[in-house]
Amino acid sequence: MNLLLWGAAPYVTIALLVAGTIWRYRHDKFGWTSRSSQLHESKLLKVASPVFHFGLLMVVGGHVLGLLVPEGMTEFFGIDEETYHVVSLAAGTVAGFAAIGGLALLLWRRLRTPAVRQSTSRSDRYMYLVLALALIAGLATTLIDNGFRGPYDYRLTVGPWFRGILLLHPQPSLMANAPIDYQLHTGLGMLLFALWPFSRLVHAFSAPIQYLTRPYVVYRSRERERVGTRTPRRGWE
Length: 237
Fold this sequence. Notes:
By secondary structure, this protein is mainly α. The chain has helices at 2-27, 43-68, 71-76, 81-112, 114-118, 122-148, 158-166, 172-176, 180-195. The protein is built from nine helices and no strands. The longest helix is centred in the middle third of the chain and has 32 residues, at 81-112. The mean pLDDT is 88.
């Protein structure tokens, strides 16, 4: 079972994520969107969406630092284990509550607004459920194992296991020895990434970076002094 969960399942997840994303892009380009519902309700969205995305960005950044950066590298830069633990606990708690709080507001908005509720698809319901459970499990690992129970150095088990998966050298025993809440959080995370290409989350791969370098749009006003000989007409004519 450990070999299937922590040795084979990660590669199945990666295959579904990559192949599903390519399939979605080739066969559903017009559905590659978050399906914005801002026209139906905007007041609560202006608060919930920034809070959720801010927390989610912090969550992603924490996972990148915790899983991809070895312990020896932080020690090389003079960051001892105690300092790393305090920063990780504080930042992880803020990120977790922000992401869960923002998601809760988005779900409340979706439930209380009839037009938004009717636009919710079945895949959206599954995605929201898995995303909420994954965030709650992640916050539980931060508060329980790194808070109440004392510091747990996941960089000796979960981190090497994750890097081993990417380096095609899986070590299922490392993840099998991790606490149960870490295993639950990891399992829900793999399920979320497996569902990613088939849900609205796929829009995260289309960040509008080109807007930073695109040329300005020039707007010209209609004045009495016109260029050319054509008589100006109304816009709808």
